[in-house]
Write a structure and sequence with these properties.
Its main location: membrane. GO terms for molecular function: iron ion binding; oxidoreductase activity. Keywords: Membrane, Transmembrane, Transmembrane helix. By secondary structure, the protein is α/β, with parallel strands linked by helices. Helix content is about 45%, strand content about 10%. Among the domains are: about 200 residues, no CATH class; about 120 residues, Rossmann fold (3-Layer(aba) Sandwich), CATH 3.40.50.720. The strands form 3 sheets. The protein has a 6-stranded mixed beta sheet with strand order 5-4-1-3-2-13, sandwiched between helices. It has a 6-stranded parallel beta sheet with strand order 8-7-6-9-10-11, with helices on one face. α2 runs antiparallel to α5 and α19 crosses α23.
């Protein structure tokens, strides 16, 4: 049975819960449109304050997940996973509650409309009441919520998040936020009743309250140790989530000291994090070197919107107003930015990170931009080599043949690299080949003379599968054909038009094809693909495969963001190829042409380590 006041009354409404702001918004709009002025001014204030509080939490969320700024100042080094993100999805429920209670207060006390904009006495009174009433009230309420029934049925929800995040501050039960509303409300209500309240006091106190709560839950040590010594009220709260018998206070450790509940590790841990912040921190074992795709997908980063990044990317309406900002950021990154860390996870004690080259897809096809892109990739490889990374895997366009020969450029330029450079195309080929039914006798292949196209053609012809290779270059076709065993060469057939595949139901697309070109495929065709971006699903009488990808093992930890359009826990095959390379401890570089003989070896190694093809899910 659910404990009283533990559930939120609107928890089943989903996004429709925001309609609860409707009466406030309607009253403001009605007054604005049909009356000379907004009579119920506090309805507007309540909406603005809620928006401001939401913005404070969002900005703190962005800061705490901007890993290239905070990675060495994190208190708990673990990552926030999908389960925690889902639990905290409705973290903003308390804003609706506080808005409704504030509106009730406005109805009961209409004199609030007469509050002045500024009254310095109110700030002094409010500070005194906060220290003498709110702080001890919160401290003792918090301690009681850690006992028996109250913890089991209420406060355990908040503590289900061991890795704190600014949204964790709002993740609690209905009863707890009712009490928190009292804690916040007493200093403000008392100051107003004493005749020294002001509008700026309400805005300032609520904003400061949320700001400090987010700081305490951010899992990032923001305050330098020297300042912490002088202003000890800027204490840890993150430790309270791992050592629950300590650090109960709101903002002031005074009451923890009086109650003998100060975590003795707080001071030493703070000093250690502050002193180590300038160091490199833990060295990743594996790095996936990604790049931007387009402006809208750039907003899929965890430090933009955490919840949006935790689901596969798709274009959303709310992104459109942000496109000018994204465009400006793109220009700034093009001019000044270097490769940066965007996400991480742990796999069997190994730290895996994703770094991003600050370039977007279209830039890779600008001849004057190629040198700069290669320079950024080279800098990332050399940095990985310098700090001790074991394997660095190149994403999609970062290993473009025309750009750097699939990574060959860097390996030949720096023959003494300790870090292994991997393009991951061997596993990409393996994934595509293992999606093709064993009884298929003929396939149609576009992008046939590319690295992947060549490897797929050579592998299939060994299986006695007839491969219709679409290419206008007889020279390149014959070069690939000569690589095949003599008794298999006749299985490779050059074709120059899409019409040649009008009776073939297995298309492997390695070069983007238009809807018109797709129209030559017979009904029931399945389009396998390794082209970026994926082709348009134009034919309703055909099926379309996703880009080659694999699901990470079940024991992955701290993974909380999706890789572009991939499902949760799924990564591109080139990413997975680097993971396998690192887990196997292979010491060779995987660059340039794909070694066809290693396709089955890499595939078996991937399965051995628990990576699974997405199609088998």
């Amino acid at each position: 049975m659910v404990a009283p006041l533990s559930a939120w009354p609107w928890e089943n409404l989903g996004v429709f819960k925001y309609l609860l702001y409707g009466p406030l918004a309607a009253k403001v709009l009605y007054s604005w449109i049909y009356e000379d002025s907004i009579k119920d001014l506090w309805c507007l204030h309540i909406l603005v304050i809620c928006a401001l509080r939401g913005l404070i939490h969002q900005l703190w969320s962005s800061y705490s997940t901007t890993l290239f700024l905070t990675r060495n100042r994190r208190i708990n080094p673990e990552g926030v996973d999908f389960k925690q993100i889902d639990r905290e999805w409705d973290w903003d429920n308390f804003l609706i509650l506080h808005a409704l209670l504030a509106y009730m207060a406005c109805l009961i006390f209409p004199s609030l409309d007469d509050l002045p904009l500024w009254n310095p006495k109110g700030f002094i009174t409010l500070l005194f009441l906060h220290v003498t009433v709110s702080e001890p009230l919160y401290y003792w309420a918090h301690r009681y919520f850690h006992e028996g029934y109250l913890f089991t049925h209420y406060h355990s929800l908040h503590h289900s998040s061991s890795v704190t995040h600014p949204y964790t501050a709002g993740h609690a039960t209905f009863l707890e936020h009712l009490i928190l509303c009292i804690v916040i409300g007493i200093p403000m209500a008392a100051s107003i009743m004493m005749g020294c309240g002001s509008t700026s006091m309400v805005y300032g106190y609520v904003s400061a309250f949320d700001f400090l709560r987010c700081l305490g839950h951010s899992n990032v040590e923001v305050v330098p140790h020297e300042v912490f010594i002088k202003l000890p009220f800027l204490k840890y709260h993150s430790l309270h989530h791992t050592e629950m018998g300590t650090n109960f206070c709101l903002f002031m450790p005074l009451f923890d000291a009086m109650g003998n509940t100060v975590n003795r590790n707080s001071w030493q841990l703070h000093k250690k994090i502050s002193s180590d912040s300038a160091k490199n921190g833990r060295v990743p074992d594996f790095v996936f070197l990604a790049h931007g795709v387009d402006l809208t997908s750039s907003m899929h980063a965890p430090f933009v919107f955490r919840s949006f990044a935790s689901v596969p990317f798709s274009t959303r309406i709310f992104l459109l107003p942000l496109l000018p900002v994204a465009f400006l950021v793109m220009l700034i990154m093009w001019a000044w930015s270097k490769t940066f860390l965007v996400s991480f996870y742990n796999l069997r004690g190994h730290l895996h990170q994703t770094w991003v080259v600050p370039r977007f897809g279209f830039q890779y096809f600008l001849p004057f931009a190629m040198e700069g892109i290669n320079k950024r990739i080279e800098e990332a490889i050399l940095r990985a080599d310098r700090i001790g990374v074991k394997v660095i895997s190149l994403a999609a366009l970062n290993k473009n043949e025309a750009l750097n020969g699939g990574g060959t450029l860097f390996v030949e330029k720096h023959p003494d690299l300790k870090v292994r450079v991997v393009h991951g195309n061997t596993l990409t080929a393996a994934v595509i080949l293992n999606e093709i039914p064993k009884d298929v006798e003929e396939v149609f292949l576009t992008g046939a003379t590319s690295k992947l196209g060549r490897a797929i053609a050579l592998y299939l012809c060994r299986r006695r599968v007839r491969v219709l290779m679409l290419t206008l270059s007889t020279e390149r076709f014959q070069k690939i054909q000569r690589e095949a065993p003599a008794d298999c060469q006749n299985y490779l057939v050059q074709v120059t038009k899409y019409q040649a595949a009008q009776n073939c139901k297995t298309w492997i697309v390695g070069k983007w094809i238009t809807p018109r070109q797709q129209s030559w495929a017979p009904s029931g065709t399945h389009f396998h693909q390794f082209v970026v971006p994926p082709i348009l699903a134009f034919r309703r009488d055909c099926t379309y495969g996703d880009l080659a990808a694999m699901r990470l093992p079940d024991d992955v930890e701290g993974l909380g963001s999706c890789e572009y359009t991939m499902e949760r826990g799924v990564v591109h095959a080139c990413h997975a190829g680097g993971v396998v390379h690192q887990l196997e401890g292979w010491t060779h570089h995987e660059v340039g042409a794909i070694d066809v003989d290693r396709i089955d070896i890499v595939w078996k190694a991937a399965l051995k380590h628990g990576l699974r093809p997405v199609s088998s899910m």
